[in-house]
Amino acid sequence: MSKPHLEPSEWYASVPTVYTSACMLLTDEHDRVLLVKPNYRPYWAIPGGVVEADEAPHECVAREITEELGLTVPVGELLVVDWAPPFEQRPRTMVNFLFDGGTLTNPNRIRLQVEELDAAEFFTWEDAAARMPANTATRIPAARRARKNARTVYLPADSAV
C-alpha cells in the first residue's frame, strides 16, 4: 500500500532549506582581486552578501556591490557555484553564486560602506585566497579557472581546486 501524498504546503514545510549568497569577482588592470574586510568578521571576503527573500542571486550581487562599494557594475557570467555544509554558527548549508564583474578600471570610484566594511583592497590571486578562510578560499582559484576556460565551476564542500 502506498503512502498518502502530503498537501503541497505540508510537503514544502518538510523540505530542507539552505541559505543563499552571491558575490562578485572584480579585478583591476593589474589582474589583482578585490576583497573587502567586513568589520564584523576577522577575515577578508569577496564583495557580496546574503540573498533576500524573493531576490535572485544576480539581483542580490548587484544590490550588494552598490551598497558596499558604491558601484554600479553589470553582473557578468556565473563563475562559481559553491556548496558549503553548516559551519561554526551557521546551522544550514550555504549555496554561493560567484559572478564575474570584470575589470574595474577606476578603483577611485569605490565608496566604502563604513557601517559594514573596514577596507577594500586589491590582492594577487594567491594573496586573496590566503586572506580568506579555508571554507571559502577555494572560490578564488576556481573563479580564475572559470574565467580562463569560460566555464562555470561547481565546488562541492570536499573539493580541492
From TrEMBL:
InterPro entries xref list: Nudix_hydrolase, NUDIX_hydrolase-like_dom_sf, NUDIX_hydrolase_CS, NUDIX_hydrolase_dom
Molecular function GO labels: hydrolase activity
Cofactor: Mg(2+)
Gene3D superfamilies per UniProt: Nucleoside Triphosphate Pyrophosphohydrolase
Keyword Kinase tagged: no
KW Transmembrane (keyword) present: no
Keywords: Hydrolase, Magnesium
Origin: domain of life: Bacteria
Boundaries of every Nudix hydrolase domain copy: 16-145
Sequence similarity: Belongs to the Nudix hydrolase family.
Protein name stated in the entry: Nudix hydrolase domain-containing protein
Organism from which the protein derives: Planomonospora parontospora
